[in-house]
Amino acid sequence: MSLDTIIHAGLRERGRPTIGLVLMGGGARTAYQVGVLRAIGAMLEARSDAPRTFPFQVLVGTSAGAINAAFLASRATQGLQAFEQLAEFWHRLRSADVYDLNVPPWVRFSRIAVALSLSRHAQANGALMNTRALHETLRKGIPLDGIGDALRSNTIDALAVTGSSYTSGVHWTFCHTASLSEFEPWQRPGRRAEYQPLTIDHLMASSAIPFLFPATALRVDGREEFFGDGSMRQVTPLSPAMHLGASRILVIGVSQPERLGLPASPSVLPAKGPTLGSMAGHVIASVFHDTLQADVEQTQRVTQTINGLPLDVAGSMRFKAIDVLAVAPSQSLDALAQEFTGELPMAIRRAMGALGVLKGSGGTLASYLLFEPRFVQALIAMGERDALAHKGELLELILGS
């Protein structure tokens, strides 16, 4: 995070604290965010001095986090009920509502046949799976008109989602504000922002996990480019929220404190190398290995420096500190997913089993694809527990006291 970005954010004073919500990506793992947000809603409902209006003015989402952000923006005019409605959306979700594996039933018991079938499909479509079901799920579940209503009523100031262009390599932030005149574009090396009213295609592009989900075409700079998951090349996840005027930021990630299967010492390393499942999980986890913690720490260091200035010096400067709170899972999501791999649809389970990608630490890969009730409910419950552990900090960030 550059000092320039933080100063820029400080210059966008709106006369009231602007609270930003940043939701990171991670496929099915982002159900964890639902639990954190649901708990926040309950905390605010329980406070007689807390307003019942939607508490975030700037929403920024990446990958499946973009879906959560857009859902909340579409229902922000309903106040705190938006969080409960998001939880209901996830409770109804199934893997079949997100993706399908195009493997004929008769080949699913042969590893070679599965590999050939998936290879042909990937070469023809650029991905192992199709996501037509997700497009329909989002079309039905996220009323885009509600986003416009929330912006025009000043319930929210901005919604932004990120995507990574396979065509140019640029990481884009697509920003939806009440009008183009209210948006100030920015450009940094490898990163750009553009005003665009959000569509389902933006959400499909942002959540297109590489290799698994197909790319989506979007128009930028007057030409069509193909986009994949916004987690790729995301080097400064807090930057969009700051550019859009947030002075307090809650960021909810889905990284974890440890990885399943890490040996205690080199002496207990397995005789063979990592399994295909371990490598596949590691590759996908690397895509979602965001720089969130480093970005948060750098922002906090700059903020501490600003707060440490003499009052007369600080008072003469035209910028202010940015308060950031990060919440992330307190337990391993890989280990949790390993308990529920049997919940994957049979076609997916058989195909992945035939390829050997569920062996070893296959829970890592499964955790991004397990849009099934028991895993989703476990993630939501973890998010609620972790939010309660940060209750004081969360209320201070949102209420300012």
DSSP E strands, number: 12
The rounded Rg comes to 21 Å
β content, as a range? 5-15%
Number of helices: 17
N- to C-terminal distance:
27 Å
Structural class of the secondary structure composition?
Answer: alpha/beta
Biggest sheet: strands, sense, closure? Answer: 10 strands, mixed
Q: Roughly how much helix do the residues carry, as a percent range? A: 40-55%
What form results from the Cα inertia axes?
globular
Mean pLDDT: 82
List segments where confidence is low: pLDDT < 50 over at least 5 consecutive residues: 1-8, 259-269
N-to-C order of helices and strands: HEHEHHEHEHHEEEEHEEHEHHHEHHHHH
Quaternary structure state of the chains depicted: single chain
Key descriptive features of the protein:
401 residues; ten-stranded mixed beta sheet; 12 strands; disordered N terminus; alpha/beta; two-stranded antiparallel ribbon
